[in-house]
Amino acid sequence: MLDLSHKVALVIGLGQSGTEGWGIGAACAVTLARQGAIIFGGNRTIESTTKTKKTIEAEGGQCEILVTDATDSASVKALVDACMAKHGRIDILVTSVGQSQPGDPASMSEDIWDSQMAINLKSVYLACHHVLPIMAKQNSGSIVCISSIAGLRYIGKPQVAYNTAKAAILQFVKATAVIYAPNGVRLNAVVPGLMDTPYTKSLAARFSKDGYEEFCKTREGQVPMGKMGDAWDVANAVAFLAAEEARYITGQKIVVDGGITSSTGRA
């Protein structure tokens, strides 16, 4: 068991669509809390975080969540300020905000491109923009950003803005990790593959004509291990990178994809 006792973890994007299963941000918050961390969260809506908060508190943990627009600097700053006012420090930052829209450069509108950059990339920059000075002053801290295998390779459908943003997160993490290493701050990324989360149902509704079950079978057929992962697989990697056990790891990525990006001939 990792020991995150008394560590303050700021998790941005810990809600989920629906009550069945677990979203990645929600699972990250619960997993960090189970290792002893105090959770302070920001999410676009409070309603979608009810399951996360209730689970953490039912297991004896602490969790406070504020409405936050991860693409708005003032909103993110207000979240960070509130966390500092309550706890006086931020030991862990997890950015788990993301959403994909289909399209290639010729067909995608500028508005969609801009909104995809905002939700998938600017959200990471803003969180780090407001948290890094705090961690640098503490001379300690761990930041874990959620990317996607869509930032490593083409995964079978045109979503060029999402691809670009998720790839940019990886370089952002590498460059910023080097800059802040002398300040005792680590930055790493977790790169999920085809995961089975509540968001999968919305993807099936958008991209599959054959329904959710067939959509899942198709995705599982693309994975060398023969099945999709889930949010807990991602959350476990996040918890490791946040912990002291990863104290000498920075500027890196952990790919959680069942082998997809190590294989050939698979979408």
Radius of gyration: 18 Å
Helix amount, in percent? 40-55%
Structural class: alpha/beta
Number of strands: 9
Q: Can you name the CATH architecture?
A: 3-Layer(aba) Sandwich
Supply the number of structural domains. Answer: 1
- The DSSP helix count reads 8
Spans of at least 5 consecutive residues with low confidence: none
Per CATH, the class reads: Alpha Beta
Mean pLDDT: 94
What is the fold named in CATH at topology level?
Rossmann fold
Cα distance spanning the termini: 36 Å
State the major sheet: 7 strands, parallel
Sum up the overall morphology in one term: globular
Q: Report the sheet-strand fraction.
A: 15-25%
Order of helices and strands: EHEHEHEHEHEEHHEHE
Largest beta sheet: strand ordering: 3-2-1-4-5-6-9
CATH superfamily: NAD(P)-binding Rossmann-like Domain
InterPro entries: NAD(P)-bd_dom_sf (IPR036291), Sc_DH/Rdtase_CS (IPR020904), SDR_fam (IPR002347)
Protein name: Related to short-chain alcohol dehydrogenase
Keywords: NADP
GO molecular function: oxidoreductase activity, acting on the CH-OH group of donors, NAD or NADP as acceptor; quinone binding
